[in-house]
Amino acid sequence: MEQIHIDKRKLLLISGCAAIVVVATTLGLYFGLKDRKNEVSDEAPILTGAAVTSNGVECAEIGTNILMLNGSAVDAAIAVLFCEGVTCPQSAGIGGGFFATIYDRSTGTVQTLDARETAPAAATKNMFVNNGNAAVEGGLAVAVPGEIKGYWVMHQKYGKLDWKTLIQPTINLCREGHLVSGYLDRIIKPRQAKILSIPSLREILINPETNQTWREGDRIKRLALADSLEIIANEGANALYSRNGTLLPKLMRDLKLFGSILTEEDFYNYE
């Protein structure tokens, strides 16, 4: 079977059928910010400062706390990206994928990781002919997500802290509620009519008291997603990519409701 990569994916958030468009998320970890008195010299100084930047209101603090626990830069990146998937669902999410570039100072080498989505085995190169919208919306647009598998692979090689430690802050955030940023407000407000027409999106992005999209400063709880993240925290990548994983059967039931052609084998074979 010819493998086909599709650029635009609309995937189901494992929290329960929430469709999201997954795009690349940029995360910067900048080291050596404290001491600006050091001048450039042939012998680079050793600096101790660190900073984490993110889009989500709470995510930078989560990443900083991971560094304070003596976590690696990769640990912090994973923790921040789990958070970004909740606070910026239009930009990231555990149903998507990513590219990563990692500099290993101990060896002076750069590693890259391709954890992007892949087309299901049943996909054909003509499946969207005369039906271009199906490549963006609906079950046929759903691809095999690589995000959790990619995080797991990075953590196995570069992580220092326990896997669950990286996810627990976002689980807590889902249960307590995350703040709606101005950025998220500007994204979802113009799409209110579309969101209202899709039950799975309406459940998450519409304030039941106003019947409008959540506004900047509001707080959204994601209890179903918290439950899914608990499973991922306990089972690791096996939750989705193993025959023993307990999350995949639940996801497959949701996918079939949307007319997806994904199968369990697509997840087992993802590399």
From TrEMBL:
<dbReference type="GO" id="GO:0005886">
    <property type="term" value="C:plasma membrane"/>
</dbReference>
<keyword id="KW-1133">Transmembrane helix</keyword>
<feature type="binding site">
    <location>
        <position position="116"/>
    </location>
    <ligand>
        <name>L-glutamate</name>
    </ligand>
</feature>
<dbReference type="InterPro" id="IPR000101">
    <property type="entry name" value="GGT_peptidase"/>
</dbReference>
<feature type="transmembrane region" description="Helical">
    <location>
        <begin position="12"/>
        <end position="33"/>
    </location>
</feature>
<dbReference type="InterPro" id="IPR029055">
    <property type="entry name" value="Ntn_hydrolases_N"/>
</dbReference>
<keyword id="KW-0472">Membrane</keyword>
<keyword id="KW-0812">Transmembrane</keyword>
<dbReference type="Pfam" id="PF01019">
    <property type="entry name" value="G_glu_transpept"/>
</dbReference>
<dbReference type="GO" id="GO:0036374">
    <property type="term" value="F:glutathione hydrolase activity"/>
</dbReference>
<dbReference type="GO" id="GO:0006751">
    <property type="term" value="P:glutathione catabolic process"/>
</dbReference>
<protein>
    <submittedName>
        <fullName>AAEL015561-PA</fullName>
    </submittedName>
</protein>
